[in-house]
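Form 12-C: Joint structure prediction
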Amino acid sequence: MDLGIRGRTALVCAASKGLGKGCAMALAREGAELVITARGREALEATATEIQSLFKVKVRTVVGDITTPEGREAALKACPAPDILVNNAGGPPPGDFREWDRDTWVKALDGNMIAPILMVRAVIDAMIARRFGRIVNITSGAVKQPIPELGLSNGARTGLTGFIAGLSRTAVQHNVTINNLLPGPFDTERLRSNFEFNARKLGKSAAELAKLRAEANPAKRFGTIEEFGDACAYLCSAQAGFITGQNLLMDGGSYPGTF
Ligand code: NAP
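Section 2 - Result
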């Protein structure tokens, strides 16, 4: 299926690795021109080169922290009017809420709630004026099924989700949609670092924990960044203009509820 986004411009935040990279690759495969961001230059440039050589599309890079005003300004200067925005950033660290002070909470809210909202604010009116816009926020399965040690993430991302639920209903009449992708366990550096944290706590090896976790998933494996990117590309497609305000859980079936 041709997703109808050839030549569209996509700003994909936090995209040198992992889920953001998966989204960037799938959008590039569909012919979108990309601006991708990350804090580390080396991996970002390597990803841009890889995408360019695979899909022959224009890929520009912006080095910066998307959770800071400077990082956002740099990204938006390079790509002031994207047709597609994928919001992403690293997640907050795990821990015990008794150890988190106000500054820790503000940092988590800044990174995983306020930063994506400010990015949406910066681009949505131009999308509305052009009568095309697709915004995808990478959140977490923890929005539906909170993970106790990831309390900062549970809190910040649920705040983002509530805000987007309201906003998305106001923009869809202009062919501008906003949806959230909720990853369960995907095989990325972030997932591996969570295993290392829990392994230290439980006195097991990270590999052992990863194996147990994969076996406990109904799919008996972790998701791949390619699977994640394909779902993102569909939500960004011309055909997906009637889908908005949704939270698509991608977790191999591990959430046990009917809805
Ligand atoms: P990852 O493999 O660690 O990749 C994160 C990517 O984002 C890297 O390219 C990183 O590059 C970039 N990045 C991180 N913080 C950034 C920032 N402040 N500004 C700009 N770029 C930034 O992580 P992932 O697994 O893809 O996770 C992506 C998001 O999904 C995270 O918020 C994570 O918590 C969430 N999530 C992941 C899973 C999973 O199973 N993987 C499950 C649930 C939720 P630099 O470090 O160079 O900036």
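Section 3 - Comments
The chain is about 45% helix and 15% strand. The chain has a mean pLDDT of 97.
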